[in-house]
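Deliverable D4.2, example record:
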Amino acid sequence: MTKRKAIYSVDPTAYDGMLKLEQYLSESQLTATHKELIKIRASQLNGCGYCLDIHTKDALAHGESARRLLVLAGWRETTLFTADEQLILALTEAVTFIHKGGISDELYQEAAQLFGEKYLAQLLLCMVTINAWNRIGIATHLKAK
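Output generated by the structure prediction step:
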């Protein structure tokens, strides 16, 4: 795999929009647990080792258990995740695999009912943002150090 220039080193202002999204998310109502579960699950699905490294460390620092992180890829086969976390993980998968039909009306309505429209909007923005970061990381061959 050839080394590629990171976008930031070539054009730091290119990240301005992404950084503003991150700032918005840091000030949103989203819990640290919800944000990190989204970021880790999307990064697992996309195969972004760089983001997985960052967000698993962040999740552990926020008090997430190693046990839950170790079984996150199999979240449907465990009782370690709450109903709201399971719904968030299902949404994350639907957004990450948007090309496979997107978010069903049923899933969207269930999430809107449980979380409310504003929190759902913040969840979706978090999902879209991490998918963009994953694509940047993978496209530029970012590596965890």
